[in-house]
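Hi everyone, sorry if this is the wrong subforum. Our group has a chain we'd like a structural model of before ordering constructs, and none of us has done structure prediction before. Sequence below.
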Amino acid sequence: MVNNGQTFVLSILEPVEGKFTEKKSTFYSYLLRCDSQKQAIEKVREIRKQYPDATHVCWAFRIVEDDLQESWSDAGEPKGSAGLQILNVLKSRNLANVLCVVVRYFGGVKLGIPGLIQAYKTATVIVIEKAKIVKLQRMLHYQIECYYEELSGYLEKLRKFSCIVKNIEYTEKAKIDFLASSPLNDVLQKVTLKAKEWVVV
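Answer:
Right subforum, don't worry. Here is the predicted structure as tokens:
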């Protein structure tokens, strides 16, 4: 995921949903883009509220913040039969910054552990195959505040470093918001790091 000091991941462009039935149990699956663990946990809570009477709400995520974080939950299914299977599919497809949630409504027929493993894998594959896979690069969101007579010089430097200018605000001074693929604190004056963002490349 790290190439020449820059961080890239394969992820999804938009949320996708899927549904299938196995021996009268119905599985609803959701594949969502999440860029933080906090965001992923909040999405799980939202889906639980959406399905308050579901038998199980199982999930897994892979998220790159400072490093790769992975987590999963079987949500009452036999250990390793649900959330871990979702995670393994995400890993096999080399996806990151994604959360997959699979909601199960029990239909009265037990699937057995092998059947559960296959069902949760299938539910995950269904949404991945519907998703548009994209390459993301983690960029640094900087801001420069400068005098107007300095503006053209800074813009020329940003072009030189292949930066992406997001916005220029014209107040008493000019404020330039831009994205860079590598740290610029040592090569540009008056620069302030605002955040880290993932950008489709």
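For your construct planning: The chain has two domains: 7-131, 136-200. The longest strand covers residues 133-146.
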